[in-house]
Amino acid sequence: MAGNTGKSKKANTGKKRLTKEERERRKRNRIILIAVEVFVLCLMLIALYVVVLYGKISHETIDEESIVINEGIAPESDESLNVNKDDITTNVGLGGHMSGYRNIALFGLDARDNSLGKGNRSDTILIASINEESKVVKLVSVYRDTYLNLGNDYYDKANAAYSKGGPLQAINMLNMNLDMNITDYVTVGWAGVADTIDALGGVEIEVDDAEISHLNNYQVETSKSLGKTYKKVTSTGMQTLDGIQAVSYCRIRYTAGDDFKRTERQREVIEAILKKAKSANIATLNKAANTIFEEISTSLTLTEILSLLKDVSSYSIGETGGFPAEQYRTTGTVGAKGSCVMTTNMVEDVLYLHQFLFGDVGDYRPSGEVETIGAKIHSDTGK
């Protein structure tokens, strides 16, 4: 026993005794290491959570070679495209004034069964043009009954493009007729809009005397379609509308301005949603994300979605408008196509659209494709 004790003492005397400063430094290093590990773990959990959310989104991968872009408007680089350009209509060479802008198609479907693909007419057709430097977003509604080339040289109301060929054909319709370079889309149905607004706690909308009765009438059908109850709006003025109320507000078309006023209401609600999202806390935004991700379809990748979301507080809605522009807009019956909205001067209308969205367009003039479409519209409608 004595011998063993001696060996133990000898072994101990061979160890270097740490100073107080060295012990404290090691302790600090262990704490830092643990903190780093916890931070990395948190990042991994966040990344996993985002991936899980992204997995809830309905995706339609658009082959970039399927996108139509008119001669003169194709982007200089294809790196950001999420589609196959052979199938998408683009315009090669005249699109320099669109540099620095990201243009995304937004489609709202009158879908009662959560179906977001072809077979549904897009009652809402919007172009969201994002100034990537200022983060100002301009919105333009393409009126659903506008008589246009559907992207396949068949002419009909614009909202038929989505029904016949889904988001790809709807994108091609916009690019071909309007000299745009759109390659991505986001589609949402009534349920997605209503649930997102509810998750955000409602949106503030000014309701006037002419709107309130129609709003409440539309709530009956909207609530029945979505399997929800509704609450009547009883007062005019600034109101906090819930999801069913706001969707019903977007559907009103029986006041002065009919469908043109209806698209203004849609843009107003989009602006109200963005405003509410910018002021929401993390828990509310998380609830909204969980809701909307299950009820949209998009071509955007996870990286692209995260890139857009990280700047959400910086975005603001700028000017909004419609196509055809008021000064070039008329209505009338076009044979079996029924009542349509028509442009009286396609070339000047498209030029005005580009000036509205992008400001200085330099030497840009609408492409030969737009001129041909304009001539066909004039021939078919006499306008």
Describe this structure as you would to a colleague.
This protein has 383 residues and is α/β, with parallel strands linked by helices. It has a domain at 26-55. It is 45% helix and 22% strand. It is built from eleven helices and 15 strands. A seven-stranded mixed β-sheet has the order 1-12-9-4-5-6-13, with helices on both faces. The protein has a two-stranded parallel ribbon with strand order 2-3. A hairpin with a 5-residue loop joins strand 14 and strand 15 (339-343). Helix 4 (190-199) packs across helix 6, helix 5 (209-226) crosses helix 6 (243-251) and helix 6 packs antiparallel against helix 7. It is globular, with a radius of gyration of 28 Å. 39% of the residues are buried. The model is unreliable at 5-11, 43-49, 75-85 and 89-93 (pLDDT under 50).
How confident is the prediction overall: mean pLDDT? 82
Order of helices and strands: HHEEEEEEEEHEHEHEHHHEHEEEHH
Number of helices: 11
Task: Name the beta content range.
Answer: 15-25%
Radius of gyration: 28 Å
Percent of residues in helical segments?
Answer: 40-55%
Strand tally is 15
Strand line-up in the sheet with most strands? 1-12-9-4-5-6-13
Largest sheet: 7 strands, mixed
Query: Ranges with pLDDT <50 over ≥5 residues?
Result: 5-11, 43-49, 75-85, 89-93
Give the helix/strand class.
alpha/beta
Report how far the terminal alpha carbons are from each other. Answer: 114 Å
Shape designation: globular
Q: What is the strand and helix layout of this fold?
A:
Blueprint (H helix, E strand, L loop, with lengths): L1 H12 L6 H36 L2 E2 L5 E6 L13 E8 L9 E9 L12 E10 L4 E7 L4 E3 L5 E3 L2 H19 L5 E6 H10 L3 E5 L1 H18 L10 E5 L1 H9 L6 H22 L2 H11 L3 E3 L3 H9 L5 E8 L5 E5 L5 E5 L2 H13 L9 H14 L2
Parallel strand pairs: 1-12, 2-3, 4-9, 6-13
Antiparallel strand pairs: 4-5, 5-6, 7-8, 9-12, 10-11, 14-15
